[in-house]
Write a structure and sequence with these properties.
CATH topology: Endonuclease, Chain A
Shape: elongated
Number of helices: 7
CATH superfamily: Endonuclease Chain A
CATH architecture: 2-Layer Sandwich
Oligomer: single chain
Strand content: 15-25%
Order of helices and strands: EHEHHEHEEEEHEHH
CATH class: Alpha Beta
Structural class: alpha+beta
């Protein structure tokens, strides 16, 4: 059954007023959750009072707010403010694009070339399959992301993040061992299959 008895539809909205109105309706209609992916537009969620208020109103009605973005030294102050609004914020390196999903609707503000401005176009859909696909996409990205507390601590304390990678290509393995050898004062190698290296 469609939200408020509305027929399924997907459309592109144009103009600041229509885009903002659609976002306000989206927040008003959300009951259970709002999941948001955003790239450099994090400051808009904090800086545009209508959007900030819509987040807070949805939360006060019981919607769980999760947000996924790339936390950088340039946007960390906005992310710290956003953490006070949303229930959970996570960091995903290289995050690109913007979309929001609730239990029944999907919104994707079309990114502008000019940073700091609100989108002039927005893709809207309440088609079940589109909503479900983007919920799955959000969950996949969410599970790859790290908690905002960890990323903010890394930036604030200047700590290099710990990353684990699996190298399968022989050249990549050799280059990484070479890099470690040149950058280390001491190198220990443990190998079960007789690893031989020559530098």
């Amino acid at each position: 059954m469609r939200l408020n008895g509305l027929a399924e539809r997907t459309e592109v909205l144009h103009g600041t007023k229509d885009v903002l109105d659609a976002q306000m309706r989206f927040f008003y209609n959300a009951r259970g959750r709002i999941d948001t992916c955003m790239d450099y537009t994090v400051h808009l969620a904090i800086g545009i009072e209508h959007i900030k208020k819509a987040f807070l109103d949805a939360k006060s009605k019981g919607a769980r707010l999760r947000c996924l973005t790339e936390i950088t030294i340039d946007n960390i102050s906005y992310c710290k403010k956003l953490r006070k609004i949303v229930d959970e914020l996570r960091h995903l390196e290289g995050m690109k694009g913007n979309f929001m999903i609730s239990e029944s609707e999907y919104l994707a503000p079309v990114r502008l070339e000019e940073e700091g401005k609100m989108a002039l176009q927005l893709i809207y859909s309440n088609v079940d399959q589109i909503v479900e696909q983007h919920q799955y996409m959000f969950e996949t990205l969410w599970n790859k992301a790290i908690p905002s507390e960890q990323r903010i601590r890394e930036i604030d304390e200047g700590v290099q993040p710990v990353r684990t990678r699996i190298l399968e290509d022989q050249d990549q393995i050799f280059n990484e061992i070479r890099r470690l050898n040149y950058s280390s004062t001491r190198l220990s190698v443990c190998s079960a299959n007789g690893l031989q290296l020559s530098f």
